[in-house]
C-alpha cells in the first residue's frame, strides 16, 4: 500500500514541533515536500533556494544519488546489527574514512546519533579519561557564554544560550563558563576572524585559579559559534585556549557539529584554524543530514587511557542502540565519497571570497548593524525593534520564505550556511532577495 503523503495533512495538532512557534506555524504552515540539489519544493509547488543547508547539515545539497542509493542498498542488505558486542563492516569503514580526513593526531571514532549525543558522549569521556588515569577529582566542565552544545542536560549546562537553559532547572553541578567572544563595539563588520578579543581566552586562567586545575576535566567550545549567531574566534584566541588547557592538563573539546565536514573550507575547523583539540564532536554533515548520526573523534591518548585492565571487560560503559547503525554508516561513507569526488571542501574555500563580498555588500542596508562571515557561513545582525526582540528577524525569515529563499534566524541575527555546491548566481539571488526583504521591513 502506498504511504499517505498528502502535501497538506488534514490535522496538524498531534505533532509538537521542535524549536518552533507551534501555534503560529499551524495557522500558516510552511511545508516542504521535495528537495533537489540547492532547492526545496513547497507544498504549493514553489522552489525555495536553500540558504541554510537544511539546518547546517546538507553540505552536499539535497537528494544526491550516491547517498540515496547507498541507503537503499544497505537497507535491503543489512538493516540493523546490534551495536554492543557485535560489529558490521560499514561502521569500521566509515570510522577509517573519518580519520583519513580528520586532523593528524585524531585516531578514534565513537558513534552517536546527533550533535547533542556527541556532546554528552565527549563530556563523559573527558571525566572518565581523567579517572582512568588516576585523576578522579577532575570532574568540572567549562563551557562558554552563548555556546550551543545541543539540548541534553550536559550540553545545556556547558552551553550558554539563556533561553535554552533558564526554564529547565538547575543543570549539572561543577560547571563554569568562559565569556563569549562577541565584541561588536570593536569588531563590527569584520571580514573573517576579528582582530580583537584573544585576551578573552585568559579568563580560563582566572577560572583555573578559582577552582584549581586538578578539579577541571575539560573545556568545550565551538571553534566558531554557529547557532548563537555566527561568533568568530578572534585571532589568536583558540591558540591561547589550547596553550592554557595543555599547561593545566585540561582536555580541549571542539564542538564541530556545524563547522565539521567542509563548512569553513577544510574538513574541520581544527584544520582551518590550525589548532588541535583532544576531542571533536560532530554530526550533521557526517551523513549530509540524511540519516541521524553523530561521532566523537578523539586522539589516541584519550582512547588509549581506557584500554587497560582485563581484555574481556567493557572499557567504556557508554553507547547507544543506534551507534554506528548500518544504514547511517552507509550514508556516511557515501557522503564522504561525494565530498571527496566533487572536491566540495576545496570548493567551499574557493567560493568563500565571493560569498564574503556578496554578504558585506549588505552593509548600509536598512536595519543592518553587523555582518560576519567565515567559509560558507554568514550572519547579518539587525537592530532589534525596541521592546520586541527577535520580531524583526522573524519577519525577515517569513518574508524571505515567501520570496523563495530559506534563511535561519536566532534572536535578531540572520544566519546562512548554504550547501557547499552553491553557484555564484545562487549567492546573488540569496543576497539580492535578502536585501529586498530588509529594505521592505518595518
Ligand atoms: N553542537 C553544536 C555546535 C550545534 O550547532 C548541536 C551541538 C546539537 O546537534 P543536534 O544534532 O542534537 O541538533 C548543534 C546543533 C540553528 C541550528 O539554526 C543549530 C543547530 C541545530 C538546529 C538549528 O542555529 N545546531
Structure report:
The structure is a single chain. It contains 15 helices and 15 strands. The chain has helices at residues 22-27, 53-56, 65-77, 89-101, 115-132, 153-158, 184-187, 203-211, 237-247, 269-273, 300-304, 326-341, 344-360, 391-402, 424-439, and strands spanning 32-36, 39-42, 47-50, 106-112, 140-144, 175-178, 216-221, 251-255, 279-282, 294-299, 368-374, 377-382, 405-406, 408-410, 413-416. The chain has a seven-stranded mixed β-sheet, sandwiched between helices. β1 and β2 form a beta hairpin. The longest helix has 18 residues, at 115-132. The chain is globular. The site of 3-[O-phosphonopyridoxyl]--amino-benzoic acid has 18 residues, from α2, α5 and β14. 3-[O-phosphonopyridoxyl]--amino-benzoic acid (PXG) binds at residues 55-56, 114-116, 119, 148-150, 222, 226-227, 255, 257-258, 283, 408, 410.
Considering the chains and any ligands shown, give keywords for the structure.
442 residues; alpha/beta; Aspartate Aminotransferase, domain 1; Aspartate Aminotransferase, domain 2; 2 domains; 7-stranded mixed sheet; 4-stranded mixed sheet; 35% helix; globular; binds 3-[O-phosphonopyridoxyl]--amino-benzoic acid; transferase; adenosylmethionine-8-amino-7-oxononanoate transaminase activity
